[in-house]
């Protein structure tokens, strides 16, 4: 079976497709024969050697990827999945492969109506949004919510969940052609949605527009931009507001930005310029900063099972729609990473094994 191996940090050519023996499940494990693999921005960070949990749990060499859709290929002792059952599986790395073995608790029956691509696009973005809006910053219908990068994988999931609660959602996107993609998420949902294209003006114009849309500030801001917006995201919180930080992508070079020194200078400067928040100020200002990374939460089995059960029920009830999906053959994994790093994609990218 074929598996993507990254031997050490690098660019797209560091993603090598290699032949490996078929893995065998042990007790309590399932071998999934993979049809489709979800690509996440975090996978690019893993390849670049910038993803903390990859260093903690795996090191080099590493196979990136957190989510697959496929069929049960074999089961270990004590597992009651039938061989051939269509499933979705979560894994802490290792998903970029034709076959992988995971604990049975990370395998979920796949609803019959889903294609493999739709199913592989589902878990990570929705788990991320679910954790932010259920565990960290639960919403009320009266809330004003600001979602950065709203046309992306996680962004689209956040917008849908916040609209489902009935909140007023303001989604920011980085290009004019992304506006309609986000607007389409409002259909049939109780909340109000405004979409702002930040490429239409400079940062001052963006924040003036965001202030006009919620003059008392935002109750919740969801920010994976990092250095570019974190400071203003915090200062635009309403009293009692929460800033949820879950990524830092503006610190990183986009696909077209060349030059080793320039790319690293951007990362280092971004790190140095990232705001540090004072608990003394937060207390008097009644504002909170919350942050998380899902890949460190995989060991909380109760949490992951509860989240997946609720998300699959929402999906079955039609409360979550499938994002636009663009597919690539597994052998073109480098092109998928390059596309994601342009910052111009919408929805999800998925790798297909055949
Ligand atoms: N903490 C967690 O557990 C967790 C889990 C999943 C994802 N994440 C984070 O959530 C964010 C979104 O992930 P995703 O997989 O759903 O990706 P995505 O949103 O589909 O793609 C990333 C988006 O970020 C924006 N962007 C800004 N600067 C960028 C840069 N230098 N390179 C590429 N894109 C840039 C672009 O949108 P605009 O230009 O429209 O803003 C782009 O479309 C990432 O930062 C990721 O690391 C965190």
Which properties best describe this structure?
354 residues; 6-stranded parallel sheet; Quinone Oxidoreductase, Chain A, domain 1; 2 domains; alpha/beta; 7-stranded mixed sheet; Rossmann fold; binds NADP nicotinamide-adenine-dinucleotide phosphate
In short:
With 354 residues, the protein is α/β, with parallel strands linked by helices.
Can you give a write-up of this model?
By secondary structure, the protein is of the alpha/beta class. It folds into two domains: 2-121 and 322-352, Medium-chain alcohol dehydrogenases, catalytic domain (Quinone Oxidoreductase, Chain A, domain 1, Alpha-Beta Complex), CATH 3.90.180.10; 124-295, Rossmann fold, CATH 3.40.50. 32% of the residues lie in helices and 25% in strands. It contains twelve helices and 15 strands. The chain has helices at residues 41-48, 52-57, 116-120, 123-136, 153-165, 179-183, 203-213, 230-235, 260-273, 279-285, 301-316, 333-342; strands at residues 2-6, 15-19, 29-39, 67-75, 86-90, 99-103, 107-109, 144-147, 168-173, 192-197, 218-223, 237-245, 288-291, 325-329, 348-352. Strands 3, 4, 5, 6, 7, 14 and 15 form a seven-stranded mixed beta sheet that branches. The protein has a six-stranded parallel beta sheet with strand order 10-9-8-11-12-13, sandwiched between helices. Strands 1-2 form a two-stranded antiparallel sheet. Helix 6 links the parallel strand 9 and strand 10. Helix 4 (123-136) crosses helix 5 and helix 4 crosses helix 11. The longest helix is centred in the last third of the chain and has 16 residues, at 301-316. The chain is globular, with a radius of gyration of 20 Å. The chain starts with a strand and ends with a strand. 45% of the residues are buried. The site of NADP nicotinamide-adenine-dinucleotide phosphate (NAP) has 29 residues, from helix 1, helix 4, helix 5 and helix 12.
